[in-house]
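Support request from a user on the community tier.

User writes: "When I paste my structure tokens into the form, the page sometimes reloads and wipes my input. The last time it worked, I copied everything first. Here is what I submitted, just in case something in the input itself triggers the reload:"
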């Protein structure tokens, strides 16, 4: 509290704890806002911070330090000071303290952020966030060493291969189920998505050949805040660094463009405009950071990044009714989420076609 309040002499007067949002991640034990009032030199003022619990769910996949969902990665990133020493561009929230509570539980006491825009962001703010992401990624492409720690994720996008793809293969067998029709109103798009899944290894190989950089790897609207610094500068602050690791130039941009419309419900009907605006901003950020590389490499990383989001969600909901409740707590009515997937998929598949052309020329 004293660190958040800004005084080593402040004393807690009142405090309360409330959950923040709805957690849809197995390695997060909960996120809470802790706030109250404190007295300092006779004056009473409010204070607030966020407590995030990193939790070991006890499964082997969450113990692999290079996998995208290693349970302790975010705690280590804050505890070692790595996230306090990022290059210009994206920053992490201020960390006021870290605690290892038990072998399977680690706590982070973090800055309580307030977004300057609320929902939705205008497209120009997305472009600025993309530019900040380009500055962050570009610094490591332009010579800044990637941190030499063993627990960074390695090609986190590969994890979606085992989660989303098999469900896509089941869509045709589920036929006219209402949820399938909601997600796939156009049979042509389903056929093109099946082709993308069948060619997945070529996309993964193309991403692996590109210049690699340090990435947040879950950089989308629900995890990024538009913040104004004390000096009035626009900052992009990212939370949830649990997938932090190395990936291809351009790949960081994929979740910002694909997941923001679907999970945050912003600009699903303008996905092409959103994507192209963000790519221009991202490329400008790479140049800001001093990366002189071929823009086509960044474009390939962005377009090939669709492979991480080309799966199907309706089969999971059909088989596991509990998933519906989880999705709706986190992202709204399932039908609306599937409608948004249907809205963004044509642009995603256009980018997949572009990636194929770029791979032939690379």
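"...and here is what came back when it finally went through:"
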């Amino acid at each position: 509290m004293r660190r958040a309040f800004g005084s080593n002499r402040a004393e807690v007067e009142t405090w309360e704890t409330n959950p923040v949002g709805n957690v849809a991640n197995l390695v997060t034990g909960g996120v809470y806002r802790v706030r109250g009032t404190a007295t300092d030199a006779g004056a009473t003022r409010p204070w607030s911070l966020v407590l995030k619990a990193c939790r070991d769910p006890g499964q082997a996949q969450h113990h692999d330090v290079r996998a995208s969902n290693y349970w302790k990665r975010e705690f280590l990133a804050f505890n070692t000071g790595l996230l306090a020493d990022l290059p210009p561009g994206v920053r992490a929230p201020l960390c006021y303290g870290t605690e290892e509570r038990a072998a399977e539980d680690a706590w982070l006491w973090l800055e309580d952020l307030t977004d300057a825009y609320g929902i939705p962001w205008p497209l120009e703010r997305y472009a600025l966030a993309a530019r900040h992401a380009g500055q962050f990624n570009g610094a490591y492409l332009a010579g800044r060493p990637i941190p030499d720690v063993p627990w960074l994720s390695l090609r986190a996008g590969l994890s979606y291969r085992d989660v989303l793809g098999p469900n896509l293969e089941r869509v045709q067998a589920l036929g006219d189920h209402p949820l399938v029709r909601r997600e796939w109103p156009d049979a042509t798009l389903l056929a093109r998505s099946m082709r993308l899944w069948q060619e997945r290894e070529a996309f993964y190989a193309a991403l692996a050949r590109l210049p690699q950089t340090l990435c947040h790897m879950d950089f989308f609207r629900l995890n990024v805040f538009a913040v104004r610094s004390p000096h009035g500068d626009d900052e992009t602050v990212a939370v949830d660094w649990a997938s932090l690791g190395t990936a291809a130039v351009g790949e960081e941009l994929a979740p910002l463009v694909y997941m923001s419309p679907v999970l945050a419900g912003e600009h699903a009907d303008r996905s092409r405009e959103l994507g192209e605006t963000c790519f221009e901003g991202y490329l400008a950020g790479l140049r800001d950071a001093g990366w002189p590389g071929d823009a086509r490499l960044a474009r390939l990383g962005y377009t090939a990044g669709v492979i991480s989001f080309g799966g199907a969600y309706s089969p999971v909901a059909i088989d596991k009714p509990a998933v519906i409740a989880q999705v709706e707590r986190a992202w709204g009515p399932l039908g609306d989420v599937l409608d948004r997937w249907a809205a963004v998929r044509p642009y995603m598949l256009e980018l997949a076609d572009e990636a194929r052309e770029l791979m032939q020329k690379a």
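Agent notes: The reload is a front-end session timeout and is unrelated to the input. The chain has two domains: 2-110, 123-361. The longest strand covers residues 28-40. Escalated to web team.
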